[in-house]
Amino acid sequence: MATYLRALGWLLCILGVAATIYCTAACIGDDTYYHAAKALEKYPGNVLYTTEFKMAEPRHMLLLAGAFSAAPVGVILGSICLGISSALRLLTQHRRSQP
């Protein structure tokens, strides 16, 4: 169980950082959102551009949320798994050393 938790902990840490990198790259390359924002800025009262912006905004906001939250959540959950793994290993070694 300790080995499983250790592997899971490292996997969560790596996947959290990878998800943050992916979300950041996708957020920077979100051309639909940037084009809609630019068109709405140019024609602020146009219903078509307002609708286009409102359709592109949720995806962009979710990418931002993923970019800011994936790494901390992955590292926190991964470190919890690594800590439990270390505690299980210490308990196992302590039980084996006792007669």
Please describe what this structure looks like:
With 99 residues, the chain is mainly α. The chain is built from 3 helices and no strands. It has helices at 2-28, 31-42, 47-97.
**Biggest pleated-sheet summary:** none
Helix run count: 3
Report how far the terminal alpha carbons are from each other.
23 Å
- Strand segment tally: 0
Derived structural class: mainly alpha
Which value, in Å, is the CA radius of gyration?
A: 22 Å
Query: How many independent structural domains?
Result: 1
Q: Write down the secondary-structure element order.
A: HHH
* Dominant shape: rod-shaped
Mean pLDDT: 94
Helix content: over 70%
Unreliably modeled segments:
none
- Beta-strand level of the residues, as a percent range? under 5%
Quick structural summary:
The protein is an all-alpha fold and 99 residues long.
